[in-house]
């Protein structure tokens, strides 16, 4: 059982809405929707779709907001993608692809189930505090979707980016640079082979990041995590969860519990296409029922 002031509740709810959002990265229909508007190649669609709510921004703003990517990797996509599509076209493509993907996973569920889930998740997303959370704010400001799956996906995306903004803020307090955070996680519970390529860091940059982690007391000389590093990162994760509790407090225990039940079958289906080593880092799902 988890009370509404338990940070663990925010993490559990994240494991329910993050897979809904993540279809935009991993489902073939999402990629096809980007390709249909001229965004060929995975990373063009990724950067154009995720950055589109910000408008036709250049690479520095996106590098800062997305946090974990090597600057040259972002610069290869931005601002050149805006010569292929406008942000408005990218937004339509990402929503089209996401809705088509979700339709494949939810066609067996009753319409009433999807409507109720969309309404509750949309209400939670409408309660996010956006001060200092740029990606959360620009997604919260997008027009409301016309159909339940569009509303469901956009609400999940607003909550996801809102939480991500808070996570970046918590990581900044650790004093680590983006490449150091990625390298640290790959010494703890993630795959360097996957994450280094997915975030664009060179071998030299990776080695330098690990050297600095040793100097900062996060890694031992043999590159195993120190107690200081483990404790400090855990504190940042807990801060992320605490900062993400607002929507669930506003929704209340009964309706948050109901939303978790409604999202369970949707999230479970969406998880089937998310690679085990994906950078989003979803943990194994566990059940927590909120109490008032």
UniProtKB/TrEMBL annotation:
It comes from the Bacteria. It holds the Pfam family HTH_67. InterPro entries: HTH_67 (IPR054058). This is SalK. It comes from Micromonospora auratinigra.
């Amino acid at each position: 059982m988890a009370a509404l002031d338990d940070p663990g509740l925010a993490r559990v709810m994240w494991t329910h809405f993050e897979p809904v959002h993540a279809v935009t990265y991993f489902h073939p229909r999402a990629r096809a929707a980007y390709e249909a508007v001229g965004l060929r190649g995975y990373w063009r669609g990724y950067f154009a779709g995720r950055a589109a709510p910000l408008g036709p921004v250049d690479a520095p703003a996106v590098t800062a907001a997305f946090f974990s990517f090597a600057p040259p990797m972002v610069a290869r996509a931005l601002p050149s993608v805006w010569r292929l599509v406008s942000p408005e076209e990218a937004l339509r493509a990402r929503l089209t692809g996401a809705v088509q993907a979700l339709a494949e996973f939810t066609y067996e569920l009753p319409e009433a189930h999807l409507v109720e889930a969309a309404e509750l998740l949309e209400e939670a997303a409408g309660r996010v505090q956006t001060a200092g959370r740029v990606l959360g704010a620009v997604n919260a400001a997008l027009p409301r979707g016309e159909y339940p799956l569009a509303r469901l996906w956009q609400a999940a995306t607003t909550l996801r980016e809102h939480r991500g903004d808070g996570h970046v803020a918590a990581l900044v307090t650790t004093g680590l640079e983006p490449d150091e955070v990625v390298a640290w996680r790959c010494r703890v519970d993630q795959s360097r082979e996957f994450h280094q390529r997915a975030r664009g860091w060179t071998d030299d940059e990776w080695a330098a990041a690990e050297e600095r982690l040793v100097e900062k007391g996060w890694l031992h000389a043999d590159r195993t995590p120190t107690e200081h590093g483990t404790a400090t990162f855990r504190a940042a994760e807990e801060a992320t969860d605490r900062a993400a509790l607002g929507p669930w407090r506003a929704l209340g225990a009964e309706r948050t519990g109901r939303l978790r039940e409604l999202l369970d079958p949707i999230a479970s289906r969406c998880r089937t296409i998310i690679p085990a080593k994906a950078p989003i880092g979803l943990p194994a799902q566990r059940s927590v029922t909120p109490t008032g």
